[in-house]
Amino acid sequence: RVRDALSVRFEVFVQEQGFPADQEVDDLDAIACHVVAWEESKPVATARLATLDATRVQIGRVAVLPDFRRQGLATRMLELLLELARREGYQQAELRSQIDAIPVYERLGFVAEGPWALEAEVPHRLMRRAITPLG
Predict the structure, then answer these.
(1) Distance in angstroms (rounded) separating the CA atoms of residues 112 and 45
(2) What is the pLDDT of residues 67-120, one digit of tens each?
(3) Residue 82: what are its φ and ψ, rounded to 5°?
(4) Are 47 and 62 in contact (CB under 8 A)?
């Protein structure tokens, strides 16, 4: 549920990292596919997938609560979203990574492009990867 995804995002991005609360929810939330990882009955990680156009998707809002980091949750959620995009016939995925998270995405085949830019006062970099078709 989107509400559960938002609870994780607000804890990570707003409370922990200091992003403005009024910028955390955007128009993509209403149309994106949200995945949430749970520990018992508590949401502990989330990510979303949104369509950009007929061939491209955007992964975003990848967040894992501090006590659940370094357990592979983000990687598993990203793999799930990439597989969903593949099954739907998309050809490319992109995201905007915080600079310190770039290695996570590189391990999944994403390549950083262009210079970094500030988003809510935090350096981010555009990353892209091809999605290989089924079959």
Answers:
(1) 24
(2) 999 999 999 999 999 999 999 999 999 999 999 999 999 999 999 999 999 887
(3) -65, -40
(4) yes
Place of tokens 């950083």: 112
Torsion over CA of 10, 111, 32 and 28, rounded to 10 degrees? 70
The predicted model scores a pTM of 0.91
Residue whose C-alpha is closest to residue 47's, from 87, 83, 78: 78
**Residue 135's pLDDT band (boundaries 50, 70, 90)?**
low
Strand pairing of 92-98 and 111-119? unpaired
**What token pair was written down for 132?**
């290989």
DSSP secondary structure of 109-130: T-EEEEEEEEETTEEEEEEEEE
* 121 CB neighbour count, 10 Å cutoff: 9
**How many Cα atoms within 13 Å fall on the side-chain side of residue 68?**
20
